[in-house]
């Protein structure tokens, strides 16, 4: 294949096929890359004909140096210790991008659970891991919630046609996070076991493909919204939020099919009852996000 402008001498690009419940899937592995989403997008643009007969392909790396999160945030990872991958969806389901984002978050959350089950020999209590609206996965440990994973879905459009999605997933696997100032943690810090970042690729990917199949069926979008709400962090809990720069006390009741959060506020002058995720900041003990 032609060498990409994004490829540098320090980045080994290796292609292989991996076995999954959905058949053999193409995996592109890089020793180092700035962003798996960015690399995957350029790879698709430069080699579109190569992927016409595939449902998608995976880009994975041992070290993502400039990972991106939602709203321009940075996603950090350490070499050989954390998972950074992007699954490129070449045939997006006929649903809203919001519901597809819910499916990606569910796949990541449940994929982490499944990996821990097989690698560690036990199941996490259902109340100890949850999806934080709209696209994070949280662990309950040492009497507080901390972020273990994040998802960034970027979509490609041609006019009104949704042609591809780049599902970027980052998981803190072996890195030491709990002593840092921000509210993060790694899987190993919770379960006390050694895991390879690569161990999470297939469980998360198979679940993502399961959800994509579900979204192609009648009522699939409704099932995704229901499951997403069942896995939600903070659902029904009265807590402080920041909306329009002001603190408010309320409870998140649900996320609707349009991706809006429905709140019940206690304030005398409350915000709107329905808000976009970008309008709400969550208050934790040492920061907001």
Could you name the key traits of this structure?
single chain; five-stranded antiparallel sheet; eight-stranded mixed sheet; disordered N terminus; 2 domains; 289 residues; 23% helix; 5 helices; BirA Bifunctional Protein, domain 2; 15 strands; alpha+beta; globular
Protein model, in words:
This protein has 5 helices and 15 strands. The chain is 23% helix and 33% strand. The strands form 3 sheets. The chain has an 8-stranded mixed β-sheet with strand order 1-2-3-6-10-9-8-7, sandwiched between helices. The model is unreliable at 1-7 (pLDDT under 50). The relative contact order is 0.14. It has 2 domains: 13-230, 2-Layer Sandwich (BirA Bifunctional Protein, domain 2), CATH 3.30.930.10; 238-282. Helix 2 (97-120) packs across helix 5 (220-230). The chain is of the alpha+beta class.
Please work out how many helical segments DSSP would assign: 5
Multimerization state: single chain
Task: Tell me the span between the first and last alpha carbons.
Answer: 41 Å
- Rg (CA only): 19 Å
Whole-number tally of structural domains: 2
Strand order of the largest sheet: 1-2-3-6-10-9-8-7
Broad shape: globular
CATH architecture of the largest domain: 2-Layer Sandwich
The strand count comes to: 15
Helix content range: 10-25%
What is the arithmetic mean of pLDDT? 89
The major sheet is characterized as: 8 strands, mixed
Order of helices and strands: EEHEEEEHEEEEHHHEEEEE
Structural class of the helix and strand makeup? alpha+beta
CATH superfamily of the largest domain: Bira Bifunctional Protein, Domain 2
Give the C-level CATH assignment of the largest domain: Alpha Beta
